[in-house]
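Chapter review. Work through the record for Lipoprotein before attempting the end-of-chapter questions.
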Amino acid sequence: MKLSGLFKVSLVATAMTLAGCGGDIEITPTVNDNSTSTDNSVNNSNNNSGGTNDDISCTEYQTDAGTVAGIFDGKDCLYNDSFASKNIQITANLTFEELPDGGVHLFEDALLIGTDGDTTTDFSIPTNGPTLTVKPGATLAFKSGEAIVRIARGAKIQAVGTADKPIVFTSAKAFPRFDAEGKGPLYADWGGIIINGNGITDQCTDAERDAATCNVPSEGITSYFGGNDNSDSSGNIKWTKIWYAGSGPKVGGEGDDLNSLTLNAVGSGSEFDYIHIHQGFDDGIEIFGGATTIKHVVVTDTQDDSFDFDAGWQGKAQFLFVKHGTVITREGTTVYMGNNGFESDGVKGTSSAQVAPSNPTIANVTIITTDGLSVRDTDPSNAFKFDDSFNANFYNVLMTKDIALQSSCISFSSDGEKQADKIIFNSSVMTCASEFDDADGTFNSGKEPAALTATTLTAWFDNNGSNQRIGEGADVFASNGFATNTASTDITVTANDLSGLDASFFEAAPYIGAVSDQDTTSPWYKWVETALAASAQD
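Structure tokens for Lipoprotein:
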């Protein structure tokens, strides 16, 4: 496996000794314990011994027992399981600054921000919990496949970088000085980011929400989310890269996985903008309920779904770019990455008066599939899979599949057909060698709305001429291979100008797909261009 230029840095030997922790520690059964032996001594000196630069101060926080601080080793800030682990819930504000000369903040174990708990016990969700702040240019690297960043209900994350100084969450093995085997980073090297919000999810009942006893256990770990406030804020992540995250099935077995970024009932008060997710084990972004928004997101070479929407999500999204591809494993084998561009589920629990099936509005999407079967589970590379009464309005979507021996662009489960009349594409283009994964090409599962029975899938997608199916090999991309060729004579439908949508969120983007070839100097164009160049190095 090759290392991208982003991560090629010089080799520096490391050592870890760290001050102990005290009164802010709470025990929570989350991820498996791969931690090192803990030094429970107390350091009240604020002395970052081991460093050669007196101006560098690693992150610290106070407990009843004293100061807990990272150690500067001359290049990096090192945090062992006395600072952060599956057994420590940090209730103080933390800030991670950019380190000079390519230094990183290195974690042995999980970083849990805020106190997690079940409100059916004596636990109350804090109204003003701690905030994890990550400054522009900072890099946080994790050594354990079980290590996660978890933001509890009531806590916040403010990881807001800039175009020139994006924030990076990644594998320690992306840095040669931390990679003893010298084989580079790979999916599932660390656990990813989990944010638990107070939004509405159909995994709770109306009565539970009314009584403030909505406590949904998150996938992959034991922590809780859910409430009755879809305007809640869990903070923001912007101009950020999340690489080599996720993990395989946990205690719950298949499906009980860690994603690169999990948004559990996160409300519309949070924003996730300018994000690049690369080489995740499970989903790129999985959303369970809530009403959060996502914008300017690139997902490359993730094993499972690039975007997975579920449990009554009522949010909005614009400018989403997906590319399935291949990576080289540490054994030297080339494997395919990518199941669905979108795994679209309407219902996880039960719809009710307070929460309808997932019904987002999504605009300006590009999905580039392969014909490969994902190394994760041998499932095919599709653009869309619709399941469980999903609803949505899509605008200006471009999906491609040049080869289709074992996959198609759109797949419906029988439950996905239940409200297929409420899945509406507008001003969208399909250029796929195989368009639909359906034997006879009609709605006839017996679960579809009566008005769609015996209707062809092509007629459903065409939407009375609003959309276009071209077939494989069409001239839809500019020479760079990712921006829409706006001069293409193969594309004959007119992009929707989005003027009928929420102007406080949706930007005017009068072109099909996520990126325009007429916009080569914009921050979004450059973000996609940089992301694809970096992912091509793996």
